[in-house]
Amino acid sequence: MLQLQSPKQIIKRARAKNEFINRKSHVQKKFFSLMLVPSYSSGKTRSIRTIYCAFYILFFTILTVAAVMLTLHWRTQNYIQIAHYTAAHLEQAQEAYAILQEVTEEEVNRLTEDNINLHSALVRDRIRGQEEQHQQRLTYLETLESIQAYVEGLEEQLQQFETYRQEILDQLSASAGIPAVRAMLNEMHQSQMHLLATLNDLNEHSAARRYREQNLITLMGSLSTPAWDAADDLFEYIAILELTLITKAELFSQLEEQVRRMAPYIRSYPTIRPVNGRLSSGFGWRRNPMGGSGSEMHRGVDIAAPSGTPVVATGAGTVIFSGWSGAYGNKVIIDHGLGIQTLYAHNSSNLVRVGQAVSRGDTIARVGSTGRSTGPHVHYEVIVNGTAVNPDRFFLE
């Protein structure tokens, strides 16, 4: 094996062998000799001679190459370490990625299941909401129907009140010829003017609200949008109807009170003729019907009718006399109250007894010619507070 020796070693070896070196030689100064010494003892020594410049270039080149190689080796080792480190971290990252992927799959499965459950819950809630909305709509419709029925009931009651009131007014108007009834009707008219004016205002307001109330029924029937304003209109309309009903009830109450006061006059006042026939003799002074001289006071009227014709009570009352009475023949007297009595004479027969209550139009006797009479007729008198008055003033029918 060859060993590379430095120039100092070569010089030292030459001096040890007593070799002479001419330091002044120009050739020796230009060259640098390398001696190759074999590893075995018997080998020959060889030398390589080169100039200093080339030697230094080669030497520094070798040093540079060695430095570069060492640098490359060091960097290679560093890169290898980095590679090992990166591989280790990459393996950890792969393991973490695998774990993350597994967790992600589990989370995706859980989210999918939650999504399915949520969707199912939403579907159930929607179905339940639709059912509740449908039930609520049915409830609203039932409520609306009950409100409509209540409104119709109020309107029907109002109509009945008005019909009944008109019937009463018609009956009263038919009896307006009775002086006491006429005075009470005037008094009733004055007392009810204010209530009638209030009713007119309510009726006008109610008519103005009816169109909006009908629109409310359409809106609440669809239930597509809230209709609170329309509902307020309906409730206001109901309040108006109730107020109208209260007002009419008060009006009717006053009317009933007036009717109660008028009833005795209407019921008892002698307003009809006792028989349908010809008036043969009027009230007042007349010539003697029996043919005698002079005149006499006729306290009633004579109404001629066929014998046996029913004689009726001209008003309600109580029979206070039924029997024979001299020139009157068969006579019936009815007390009508209110200070009024009526007398029916010359009857062929009396059909009532004392104390019997009779109504207007009841048959009380039959036409005859008993007593002082010239032919079949009814002698009819009206006695007010003990004094006979002209019956013509009482005939209203």
What do you see in this structure?
With 397 residues, the chain is α+β, with helices and mostly antiparallel strands. The chain folds into three domains: 7-70, no CATH class; 149-268; 278-284 and 296-393, Glucose Permease (Domain IIA) (Distorted Sandwich), CATH 2.70.70. The chain is 56% helix and 19% strand. The protein contains five helices and 14 strands. The protein has helices at 7-16, 26-30, 52-174, 179-222, 228-268, and strands at 31-36, 46-51, 278-281, 284-287, 295-298, 301-304, 310-312, 317-324, 330-337, 340-350, 357-358, 363-367, 377-384, 387-389. Strands 3, 6, 7, 8, 9, 10, 11, 12, 13 and 14 form a ten-stranded antiparallel sheet that branches. A hairpin with a 5-residue loop joins strand 8 (317-324) and strand 9 (330-337). Helix 3 (52-174) runs parallel beside helix 5 (228-268). The relative contact order is 0.07. The model has no long low-confidence stretch (mean pLDDT 79).
